[in-house]
Amino acid sequence: MNPSILRPGCKAEERIFQWIGVNSAPPRTLNHILLQTLDSLANRASLKDTVGYGSGLRKFHIFCDIFSVPEAERLPASFRLLHSFALWAAADPEHIPAEVKEGIQLEPISVTSVRKYLSAIRAWHIVQRWPPPLSQDSLVTINFSLRGLEKIQMGRRVLPPRPPITIRMLIALRLTLRIEKPFDTCIWAMSLSAFWGMMRFGEVSVKSIKAFDGKLNLKRSDIHFGYDLDKRPYARLDLPSAKTAKPGKTQSVFLTEQNDICPLAALRNLFIVVPARSSDPLFSWTDDKGNILPMVKQTVIKFINNTLTSWGWGTSFGHSFRIGGASYFLAQKVDPEIIRIAGRWKSLVYETYIRAFEQTASRHMSNLTERASLVGGAPIDRRGSALMGKRRVHLRTMLS
């Protein structure tokens, strides 16, 4: 990307706010500093995660540089420009004649990523006080083109699914950690909480030490231990802020006992090894000077990846804990609806995360003729008991 004073060097998440255009945007508030300040504050508060937006803006300006698009035409951007950007970004070099693409830099990405980048450009326009650049009819045209390019790509630009964390990986991690040490015991507690609670790793960690905010991140006061109706212990984590929660609304994560890799035991051990105030981070550790510090996401992911690599596994990602927990519960035949509720999914989107079926297909589908046969329309198991009869007995037992 060509250097420009319009696009100063900054973190990816700041590009949408700091990268500007040469044109003056029309005012959208009255000419008063208070209203203009409120407008700026509202813009930032409306966008939770702008790192991906930064990547989209960079890609857009690379395209504009390649095709010598003047700065005045980049913001606001026309339908013609954005349609061209979408075609270029999703272009598959294998299907383009050499003479056509000669001298043109191509950086193909998946159609899914292109749509995300178009959303980034749209948000950039709004933040910079311009109207959204594409009408509904324009979007229909672009999506029509993208559907065709997606068929041409045939999945070649789609990243492979993230690998799930497994029970064996957790055991290997435990054998590596020394949970009497503050740093290690914090990693163990957050790993088990993320796995068994099917949590996003950003919910148990922070982006940086200075980024901890008690209004957004878990504190010691946000955990509650109790007993359910069967008098079994559980822990409830009340998330002050969550991706799918409305502003100011909490979401609760429930953790239960799990034998040798128990999140409740890990959390209790964390409280012993790292005593802290109620306002301190829930997942925290102490440095050599005794300072209580939140656990930074990238630090933990790097540690876990290095550990799993040393045990012969590839690298994983923070979301692999959420995927792994859902996959494990499915493998143990937990009702999918329970998985959806416990994982706080609002729809069946969790199905795209689950990687367990290939590992457990035989439990559900193999040797069915050995286990049951149809006699008079009623399924009978090998011991001769009608399955429907067994279900009635089971229901009576539950009701008694």
UniProtKB/TrEMBL annotation:
GO molecular function per UniProt: DNA binding
Swiss-Prot/TrEMBL GO biological process terms: DNA integration; DNA recombination
Signal peptide positions on this chain: none
Highest taxon listed in the record's lineage: Eukaryota
Keyword terms: DNA recombination
Entry keyword Transmembrane: no
Record bears the keyword Oxidoreductase: no
Protein's UniProt name: DNA breaking-rejoining enzyme
Species the sequence originates in: Sphaerobolus stellatus (strain SS14)
